[in-house]
Amino acid sequence: MIEIINLHKNFRDKKVLNGVNLEIESGKVTTIIGRSGCGKSVLLKHIVGLLRPDEGSVNVEGARLSEMSTKELYQIRKRMGLVFQNGALFDSMSVEENINLGLREHTDLSEADISTKVSSLLDMVGLPGIEKYRPSELSGGMKKRVSLARALAMDPEYVLYDEPTTGLDPIMSAIIDDLIIRLNEQLKITSIVVTHDMRSVYTISDHVAMLHYGVVRFNGTTRQLKETDDEVVRQFIEGNILGPIQPVLKDGR
Amino acid sequence: MSSLKKLVVAVAGFFLIDKIGSRVLFFFSGMGESMILLYNSLKNLKYVHRDRALVLEQMVIVGVNSIPLVIVTATFAGMVSAVQAGYQLQGFASPQMFLGSATSRAITIELGPVLTGLVLSGRFAASIAAEIGTMKVTEQIDALETMAIDPVRYLATPRLLAGLVMMPVLIVFADFIAISGSMFIGYLSMDVDPQAFLSSVQRFMELRDVMSGLAKAVLFGASTALIGCYVGFATEGGAEGVGLATIRAFVLSAAAILVNDYIVATVFLT
Ligand SMILES: Nc1ncnc2c1ncn2[C@@H]1O[C@H](COP(=O)(O)OP(=O)(O)O)[C@@H](O)[C@H]1O
Ligand SMILES: [Mg+2]
């Protein structure tokens, strides 16, 4: 289980997270929704320990990330995979090298096993046979899927997806959603999915949390989400122009 | 009136000191941070056997790709030092006797390391800063971190090692070429017999000339790689930030060469 407790984060004088409280249940799919720029990626980066909280904490299986040594943190990270919003592929490496880097660094698998694993991961994300491509030769959606394959390479227990379906066509989005569900059901991977795609939200989520002005505005199941009478949440999930949310996000309120 | 003037001076002085103060502070915090980076890079030397492929790759990038540049720089440095030495020896001493030692000592102590260092450091530091800076702003450094791979071990240590090893190798190579260039010009324009040139080199060159040149080379290699990595990791703000980082690395690494040159000269030659 991952607990996020009273998490605060500012960048200079800009308040981004302002007391976020959230529990991520193991073995479940939790989606995080919220407007662009509300701090969803920042929240994910706290969960893998890339950013340190100004106040509050992130606990993974009861242990507080900010109190861990680098070694302990790396042990936890080996059990996590993060799919970056823009892929963050290593552009000096081929697709294959991107995916097998973790395996080469952290395991004793043979070259043959590694390359079998890489090709099965590429099959899984719908990109068979692109091992030798460079990231610069891929479209945005392909990069994101290679990033997903890279995140899955070490058989993580937790996978964090930062907008995995943004920029993909509807069919590909459905395939990725299906993959997220399968990974969760078959391998019991605890999944945290940041997304704007409401269709995905209803398809994949066990739990939904909405981030708004630095705090968790809504936290519940998809059924509760559909039935909520919070006007702010309703406006967001229905995508209405008129409503309590101002078109322009004001800084930290 | 005079009290107003005093006030103005005091306020202006305060702002000046404040501004200089913050610059000085900034400089020292940068120095401190790069020393920490140096320490952390050296700590990873214990993995060098495992990471040898990474190190080798960097050595090839630094070394092989720089050879043409080194050849051109060193040839001209050598030829001009022969012309210069010939001019200064005029009426004092015979070029037959002294041209070899005058040029070769100037080359091994100063010209070889500093000219080669300056030419290479710009290239080397800027390319490291651009590469690591791009990785920083496109979250590739974050990606390494989340994969439990230490970016210092993976990126900085191999570059530092490559700089430490390849800079001296290239500088010694440059010394040889430059000395050959001097000998060539001595023969062509001053009728200095190559045999006499070489025996002059042998007779007057001292061990500490070579040692100081090598010490410079090692220091230049380390400072160049370190500055490239430090500036790269500190990059912020997209493509524009990468551009600024590249320029910064270029300027800082050249400045570091001149400062280190002075320090080594003081230690070895006084
Ligand atoms: N490293 C950083 N430095 C300064 N500001 C940042 C940084 N990372 C994110 N921010 C700011 O925090 C806010 C939230 O960003 P982000 O989490 O990326 O939003 P999103 O919810 O769209 O993923 C944005 O206003 C962004 O400008
Ligand atoms: Mg985001």
Structure explained in plain terms:
The complex is a heterodimer of chains A (253) and B (270). Chain A is globular. Chain A is built from nine helices and ten strands. With 253 residues, chain A is an alpha/beta fold. Chain A has a six-stranded mixed beta sheet. In chain A, strands 2-1-4-5 form a four-stranded antiparallel beta sheet, with helices on one face. The mean pLDDT of chain A is 91. In chain A, helix 3 (95-106) crosses helix 4, helix 3 (95-106) runs parallel beside helix 5 and helix 4 packs across helix 5. Chain B has 270 residues and is mainly alpha-helical. Chain B contains eight helices and no strands. The chains are: A alpha/beta (253), B mainly alpha (270). Chain A binds chain B through residues 45, 48, 50, 70, 74-75, 77-78, 80-82, 84, 86, 88-92, 101-102, 105-106, 150, 154, and chain B through 131, 134-135, 138-140, 142-143, 145-150. The complex binds adenosine-5'-diphosphate and magnesium ion (MG). Adenosine-5'-diphosphate is lined by residues 11, 16, 34, 36-42 of chain A. The site of magnesium ion has 4 residues of chain A, from helix 1.
